[in-house]
Design a protein that fits this description.
The protein is α+β, with helices and mostly antiparallel strands and about 220 residues long. The chain contains eight helices and eight strands, in the order ααβααβαββαβββαβα. The radius of gyration is 20 Å and the shape is globular.
Length: about 220
Amino acid sequence: MGDEFQEIDFLRSEIKRLRRALNNLTPPLSGLLKRRGFKIYKKEPSEDLLIPDREFISGYYEMLKKYSFRLFLRDVIKHQPLFTLAQVTRYSTKEVTDEYIKHLVKTGLAVPENMAYKLTKAPVKSFGETLEWFVAEICKREFLAEAVWGVKIKRPMVGGDYDLLAKVDASILYMEIKSSPPKQIYQNEIRAFFNRIYDLMPEVAIFFMDTELRMKDKIVPMF
């Protein structure tokens, strides 16, 4: 069993090495976009970005891999300016939620105030920017891909916002990222997603929804 794990670790490191080499041999994301007539003029806004200082980023990134923690953060944002343990204990046990709050306090994202807690970076309008940042970090850390999020591109016909653009090897990945539940997604958003695909023509396009709710009743028919 130990030899198998060693072989898997070796293969993972070899894949990362080859991806680094391939990235160095292929144009950067900006170059791939330029070839298609696209130029980024704004990216990665920070107004509603809920992330800690650099020293806590790696631990926070690992916490964001937990679906319950992401739901917890949505509730924290919803109950601004102050939130209590009872208000944000919907998707986890009281004990787990208490640990989540302690993590926010430890990383400087929240402070105790009047028997409750307050975000230090308030007001935060939504979880959307933080989710886009997190998915971009997954692309960078797990797939060694160049990635940018919250991208704005000026185009005569389509343009608009691209939640995430990444260079995977020599290909462009476009991802639309939704933190809203299926009931809050509408046909015009699906249409805009397809319009951007037809304009950019990426090799890979993903419509990502951060949910464990059923999507085949509403989202699939709209597609």
